[in-house]
């Protein structure tokens, strides 16, 4: 019953997390789009301090949007801030991190073949990394490096690469991936909480006081712009990482960290195309290059044909394979798993007998032969020889 209820809890939080994320990123895409499509307003609007004008039609109504240079003479009674989308995405994401990785089955986070650490140590490393990287980012964005956008971008990429590589050495592939995603998400929400919102508050205060913004307000605004540029480039990678959790071919790969880095780079680069296009610069070569890099990546990480993925079918008896399933898989992959914490067959895959195994041929090969992603965390100590035997038997099907 406990496992069942915790499944529901995970599902509800995940559902909420996705909705909050859609609202956050959707609003952020919308405002980037808006900013880049503002046109010069007619003279009478300029006189009121409006610097950008835009008309749109949606849901059967026509909208007129105006962006002020600073603000209206008098602040409206109601001003929408768009901050809870970001905060609730992060809070629900952290809750999910706890439910699935810190309080759920240790196999999601820990892989004893990489680092034989306790779950407690894993949690400390995970949370410590989030706090440390956020602190480093905050120190950097307040340093002179912030004056050089390109150099900052490179340093940020290098830091994330190091985090990615480092976490991959101590966590399971999946655990490492989700933590890189959480690091990026934390930087993004800190950008909102520690930079963008305080800067907006300073601007609103200046308008209230009827003052021209002083140097401090202008500096905060410039930094805020850099922070939102970073967030903008991080949106596609962070969403990719969230969904990559369902693809063991990526995080289960021995060089999973390099794959993550490559995809992070490609997706941020693709975002660049849209940013340029919003500024009326159309450079499709960027998308073509991103697509070409993706094709190269797919080719490079394709599983190398070992004896087991080739067509060899040395005789491996049904009994041997049934024994392998019994020892290494069935505790979880059964209608009623005996492994504590599991309520039903994970990923809907039951492996109680050989015909069920044959039904899932491709997936099983990928999870337990081509990669070592299964058994989860290799809790049962499955050997290379057993993987080889499983692969050979699957070839015969
Ligand atoms: C400790 C529990 C556990 C054991 C033991 C285990 N698995 Fe899994 N398996 C899981 C979980 C949990 C998932 C779902 C992972 C996810 O959501 O990515 C899964 C998913 C899978 C998948 C689907 C992967 C995909 O593409 O989504 C396959 C195939 C699989 N396991 C095969 C095996 C085989 C073969 C064995 C035995 C050699 C095994 N598992 C042992 C827990 C286990």
By oligomeric state, this entry counts as: single chain
The largest sheet has its strands arranged as 1-2
Helicity level, as a percent range? 55-70%
- What does the overall shape look like? elongated
In DSSP terms, counting alpha (H) and pi (I) runs of 4 or more, how many helices?
Answer: 14
User: Major sheet: size, sense and barrel closure?
Assistant: 2 strands, antiparallel
**Radius of gyration, CA atoms, in whole angstroms:** 25 Å
Our measurement of the CA-to-CA distance between the termini, rounded to an integer number of angstroms, reads: 38 Å
Give the helix/strand class.
mainly alpha
Domain Urate oxidase N-terminal: 3-302
InterPro entries: Cyt_c-like_dom_sf, Urate_ox_N
GO molecular function: electron transfer activity; heme binding
Transmembrane segments: 12-33, 87-105, 117-140, 152-171, 177-197, 256-274, 286-302
In summary, what is this structure?
Keywords: Membrane, Transmembrane, Transmembrane helix. The protein is mainly α and 397 residues long. It contains 14 helices and two strands; from the N terminus they run H-H-E-E-H-H-H-H-H-H-H-H-H-H-H-H.
């Amino acid at each position: 019953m406990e496992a069942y209820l915790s499944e529901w809890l995970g599902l509800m939080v995940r559902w909420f997390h996705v909705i909050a994320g859609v609202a956050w990123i959707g609003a952020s895409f919308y405002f980037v789009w808006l900013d880049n499509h503002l046109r010069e307003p007619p003279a009478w609007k300029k006189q009121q301090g409006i610097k950008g004008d835009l008309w749109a039609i949606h849901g059967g109504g026509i909208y007129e949007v105006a962006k002020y240079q600073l603000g209206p003479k008098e602040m409206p009674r109601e001003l929408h801030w768009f901050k809870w989308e970001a905060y609730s995405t992060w809070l629900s994401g952290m809750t999910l991190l706890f439910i699935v990785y810190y309080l759920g089955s240790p196999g999601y986070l820990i892989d004893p073949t990489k680092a034989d650490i306790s779950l407690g140590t894993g949690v400390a490393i995970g949370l410590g990394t989030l706090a440390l990287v956020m602190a480093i980012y905050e120190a950097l964005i307040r340093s002179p490096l912030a004056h050089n956008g390109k150099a900052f971008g490179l340093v940020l990429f290098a830091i994330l690469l190091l985090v990615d590589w480092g976490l991959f050495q101590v966590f399971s592939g999946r655990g490492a991936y989700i933590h890189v995603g959480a690091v990026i998400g934390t930087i993004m929400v800190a950008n909102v909480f520690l930079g963008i919102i305080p800067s907006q508050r300073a601007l609103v205060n200046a308008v209230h006081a009827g003052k021209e913004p002083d140097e401090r307000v202008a500096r905060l605004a410039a930094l805020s712009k850099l922070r939102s540029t970073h967030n903008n480039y991080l949106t596609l990678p962070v969403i990719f990482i969230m969904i990559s959790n369902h693809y063991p071919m990526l995080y289960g790969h021995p060089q999973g960290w390099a794959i993550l880095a490559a995809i992070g780079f490609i997706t941020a680069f693709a975002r660049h195309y849209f940013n340029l296009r919003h500024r009326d610069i159309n450079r499709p070569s960027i998308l073509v290059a991103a697509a070409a890099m993706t094709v190269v990546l797919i080719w490079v990480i394709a599983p190398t044909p070992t004896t087991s993925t080739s067509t060899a079918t040395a005789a491996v008896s049904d009994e041997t394979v049934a024994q392998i399933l019994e020892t290494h898989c069935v505790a979880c992959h059964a209608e009623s798993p005996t492994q504590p914490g599991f309520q039903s067959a994970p990923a809907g895959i039951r492996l109680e007998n050989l015909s069920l195994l044959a039904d899932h041929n491709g997936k099983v090969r990928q999870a337990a032969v081509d990669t070592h992603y299964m058994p989860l965390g290799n809790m049962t100590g499955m050997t290379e020889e057993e993987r080889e035997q499983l692969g050979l038997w699957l070839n015969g099907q």
